[in-house]
Write a structure and sequence with these properties.
18-stranded antiparallel barrel; mainly beta; disordered N terminus; 19 strands; 389 residues
């Protein structure tokens, strides 16, 4: 089965017609583009309870410098490389113990390879192959945002479009996080077995599109799902259903349903959603090696995939000149042991370009939990400045 899946990916990488730009390898290198960014990110978390190394009071600022180089296309091939260096600028407690380091300092909560962030890491390093105008293959370290394969991946990703039908095929061996607000070292997916995800999408007409996927973790589980997207005038409705088929008898199968609706009214973009997880078992969205962040609308959303979790949320986005703003409120009820607990989360996100090249983003989150919940109430502020060149 594994060889068959690899053969499917390899077969898609072969195209019939050529898309070539640079006349030689030297031209491709000399015509390449260099860009970069300098960032500073700040986070402050205030907890009512500090009963764990993750949920505790922390405050830190981390700076990073990223340099990116992209070659021109030659023989349908191009190379993208981007490296990022991190440096701790400030910590409320530079000797605090977090879940990722002993006496490592507050910043090790999010930047934790050595606790002090004095490291340089490859953020992107991949080859792009475009055998035809409708097939793209990327192999190497890249940022992916898909159903259950997200963030920084050491992967092969193929996108192919044939009229109204498209195929996304992914094989990933390692995953982590390498960007301005987070650094988590790359770790193997499912030991050496990796993860395979295939998504087939089809546009039925201007109003309806559908997709189906299978995320395969050999010897662990399959996550099989589908989506239906409906657009009527300025109203969009989306339904997503997924089921986890566990290979181990000690872990129960689970189901996940997520329905969203959005529209646009006088410049405002309100949206709402409902999500439900099986009452018998948590869904493996945040568990172990799975990455289900693309489905979670919240800044935190810690219980979104918990056993029996039922979530309702409403939000609205609006631009005021150059200022973009989004306000989101949601409630989640979930099962912990034999108890039903609940929490609500409110977040305000703001974005503003201070200049053409300097952009600021700010997020403020308030979480209120049932008094018997393990973590209690807390609030969190994050802010990031990014200068691009």
């Amino acid at each position: 089965m594994k060889n068959l899946k690899i053969s499917m990916i390899a077969a898609l990488a072969v195209g019939a017609c050529s898309v070539s730009y640079a006349d030689s390898l030297q031209d491709a290198l000399t015509n390449g583009k260099v860009s970069g960014e300098i960032t500073t990110t700040y986070e402050q978390r205030d907890m009512d309870k500090t009963e764990s190394t993750y949920y505790q009071n922390t405050g830190y600022a981390v700076g990073s410098f990223a340099l990116k180089y992209e070659t021109d296309t030659w023989n349908n091939l191009s190379l993208t490389s981007k490296f990022r260096a991190y440096k701790t600028l400030f910590e409320d407690d530079d000797n605090s113990t977090t879940s990722h380091g002993t006496n490592a300092g507050d910043a090790s909560e999010r930047f934790y390879e050595d606790g002090k962030n004095r490291t340089v890491e490859a953020e992107e390093f991949f080859l792009t192959y475009t055998p035809t105008n409708n097939i793209t293959v990327k192999a190497g370290r890249q940022f992916i945002s898909s159903n259950w394969v997200n963030k920084t991946q050491d992967a092969v990703k193929i996108d192919a479009a044939f009229g109204d039908t498209s195929l996304e095929a992914i094989w990933s061996l390692r995953h982590g996080r390498v960007y301005s607000r987070d650094y988590r070292p790359m770790s193997k997916f499912n030991d050496d077995k990796g993860v395979y995800q295939f998504t087939l999408s089809h546009k039925i007409n201007d109003m309806i599109s559908v997709s189906a996927y299978d995320a395969m973790y050999p010897d662990v589980r399959d996550i099989i799902g589908g989506k239906v997207n409906l657009k009527l005038d300025n109203v969009s409705l989306n339904a997503h259903y997924a089921t986890s088929k566990e290979d181990k008898n000690t872990v129960k199968d689970s189901n996940f349903l997520h329905i969203t609706a959005s529209t646009s009214i006088a410049g405002f973009k309100p949206y709402a959603g409902y999500a439900k997880v099986d009452d018998d078992a948590a869904f493996p969205g945040y568990a172990g090696e799975n990455s289900g962040e693309t489905n979670v609308p919240f800044e935190e959303g810690d219980y979104f995939y918990s056993k029996g979790a039922e979530t309702l949320y409403v939000g609205v986005s609006k631009s005021f000149g150059d200022l973009s703003a989004t306000l989101l409120y949601g409630m989640t009820e979930y099962i912990s042991g034999t108890k039903k607990l609940d929490m609500d989360e409110t977040t305000l996100w703001l974005g503003y370009p201070l200049t053409k090249d300097l952009k600021a983003n700010l997020g403020y989150t308030i979480v209120n939990e049932t008094s018997t919940a393990p973590h209690g109430d807390y609030n969190q502020l994050n802010a990031t400045l990014t200068y691009s060149f």
